Amino acid sequence: MHFFRWTRGVGRGVSADTLGESLFRWFSTLVALGVVGVLVLIATLLFFEAEASIRVFGWSFLGGTVWNPQPPLLFGALPFVYGTLVTSALALLFGVPISLGIAIFLSELAPSWIRIPLTYVVELLAAVPSVVYGLWGIFVLAPVMRTSIEPFIQGIFGFLPIFQGTPIGLDKLSAGVILAIMIIPTISSVSREAFLAVPDSQREAALSLGATRWETTRLAVLRYARAGLFGAIILGLGRAVGETMAVTMTIGNKNVISVSLFDQGQTIASWIANNFTEAETPLELSAFIELGLVLMLMSLIINIFARLMVARVLRQGEGAA
Amino acid sequence: MKFPFNRDTRRRWIDLTMSIAAFVCVVIAIIPLGSILIEASIRGLQSLSPAVLTSTTGQGGIGNAIQGTLILILLSALVSLPVGILTGIYLAEFGKNRLGAAVRFFVEVMTQIPSMVVGIFVYSLVLELGLIGLGSPRLVFSTISGVLALSTIMVPFVARTSEEALRLVSIAVRESALALGIPRYRTILRVVVPSASSALVTGSLLGIARVAGETAPLLVTAFGNNDWFRGVDQPIESLPHTIYIWATGPYVAQNQAAWGVSLVLVLMMLGLSIASRVVIRLRSVSR
To answer: How far apart are CA A130 and CA B214, in angstroms?
Structure first.
């Protein structure tokens, strides 16, 4: 189609403008395709580099619990996958209710003069670098967790297997809390967009039936926007899965699979960050890159799923408005 | 059934309770932000001095880390802004078809790739290129690698923000330029891009802020260096890297100093974030 337009221009005699026109168009298209090409390159290159490890270990890589850089070389990803899943789940557990509360407050309940400054402040949470969260986690959060919060939880729920052991502060629970703080701006801003996409006629209908503001929010807004909220939560999950520095600094870095949240752990990203540059053999390097590939696939699947959800809802909102 | 209040009073109480609960959520989210800013200010200011700001990390200062971060940001911006903005132009101006939709989708996916993965991608890329004779495997830990990694993160981000910026320019502006017989590409370059310039600047500033705090990809690319900048083929220090090393190190003095580095970095990020807001405000005033 574009090609024909281009040749038609040429057929009429090449003026500077038609040439400039098509040059500009093709150049920007090429650059854009080049950017997408980088994504393809990332996937292919990682796969190529991980091939040695994939060939040696196959699917047992994902189920293996040992990372043994000395002969006999044996590399397994399970402790890291486990750590990633547990910390991300904790992040959602703490982060989702708070984010939804924020989104509801900022889009439905807050008086308008306070909305803009508060929205801005919550978004500032996203501007703090991950490594600064890590520093704060080590020297502010971890001591509080160790001396007050974790003993307190243990006092009440100490019989549960997930709260066993001596609280140390640098553990899966702390990493989960840090992650929760970091995904709050993502979830709350996408949820707010989903709320804004709800047509006002929904709210007006509920209000005209005599519903209070909360009933309006619950019946007319939350129900209508639920697919968008789901997308927002999944996007937050994607952020939590890929997060590196803050988790690396607070999770305690120990390659174990333990039930207790008061025990240290390791995530895929934290293990790569700590040890990638110290890989001793080509096979170990390849195993590290396979870990990266696993992390990328996890995050891609989560994110594509979330994008599709959010896109559907926003389209719906536009259609109805 | 008997309630202490009649039904409507109860509904009003639930309404009030939920409003307060939602407000409490906002407060809970602000506590860590406030705590980080306060701790960084109090603990950080104690460890900052002119001598610290002008000496290298080898001597216990952070001058080379500030220099390194500025160099990394500047070079990444030089690579990423033209590529990102041009991609944004493609998406906004020529992207209303299937190819454009696909490009938009993949660019969006790229903004979500974990930064650690970008780091090992660039590590592998530079290593493989070095092995086939382009560059050298030694370049794996260098400023060039660091810039490649940061650019890989920054380009998709800038592309998205630029697209949104260009879409804000009203159709009427484009149509009036086209009606004067100005060709499409000149309309874009001379009319649409300048009208969107402040939004483009905002997006660029946010893109810079997005990568200025990145640490994970730099661990496996720019690596770190206790001396001043020694060339683009050498490892380079950066503020986030210094924070990581000093925060996880065994020395209390370094732990303390990490707060000072954080203060510098957070001030830089807040500055960029506020600057981007100001640009938006200036634009709305000038209209």
So the answer is: 7
- How many whole angstroms separate alpha carbon A103 and alpha carbon A187? 8
Reply yes or no on whether the pLDDT at A189 is more than 50.
yes
pLDDT tens figures, B248-274: 999 999 999 999 999 999 999 888 888
Interface test with B, best of A24, A140, A219 (most B CBs within 10 A): A24
Are B113 and A242 an interchain contact pair (Cβ–Cβ within 8 Å)? yes
Q: Searching chain A, which residue's CA lies closest to the CA of residue B17? A: A214
Q: What is the pLDDT along chain B (287 residues), one digit of tens a residue?
A: 555 668 888 888 999 999 999 999 999 999 999 999 999 999 999 889 999 999 999 998 999 999 999 999 999 999 999 999 999 999 999 988 999 999 999 999 899 899 999 999 999 999 999 999 888 888 999 999 999 999 999 999 999 999 999 998 988 998 999 999 888 888 999 899 999 988 899 899 989 998 999 999 999 999 899 999 999 999 999 999 999 999 999 999 999 999 999 999 999 988 888 888 787 776 655 54
Q: Is A67 helix (H, G, I), strand (E, B) or coil?
A: strand
* CB of B255 closer than 8 Å to CB of A135: no
Query: Which domains are assigned to chain B?
Result: 65-237 (1.10.3720.10)
Cis peptide bond prior to A167, omega within 30° of 0 = no
Q: What is the pTM of this model?
A: 0.90
Choose among B81, B88, B90: nearest CA to B184.
B90
Cα dihedral value B221, B227, B228, B231, nearest 10: -50
Task: Test B15 with A98 for CB contact under 8 angstroms.
Answer: no
- What are the structural domains of chain A? 2-57 (no CATH), 77-320 (1.10.3720.10)
Is the separation of the CB atoms in A137 and A250 below 8 Å?
A: yes
Chain A nearest C-alpha distance from B90 (Å): 5
Mean pLDDT, residues A305-316: 76
The chain B residue lying nearest A245, using CA atoms, is B216
> Is A101's CB within 8 Å of B83's CB?
no
Q: In the Cβ-directed half-sphere of B280, how many Cα atoms lie within 13 Å? A: 13
Q: How far apart are CA A53 and CA A75, in angstroms?
A: 8
Contact between B62 and B136 (Cβ < 8 Å): no
B182: left (phi over 0), alpha (psi -120 to 50) or beta: beta
Distance CA B239, CA B267 (A): 12
Which of B30, B113, B273 is nearest residue A299 as measured by Cβ atoms? B113
> Hey, which residues does A67 pair with through a beta bridge?
A75
Which 3 state secondary structure label does DSSP give A68?
A: strand
Shortest Cα distance, chain B CAs vs residue A109, angstroms: 7
Residue from B39, B121, B158 to probe the interface with A (highest A Cβ count within 10 Å): B121
Residue ranges in A58-77 assigned as alpha helix (H): 60-63
Q: Say how many CA atoms lie within 13 Å of A175 toward its Cβ.
A: 32
Residue B122 touches partner A, C-beta closer than 8 Å: no
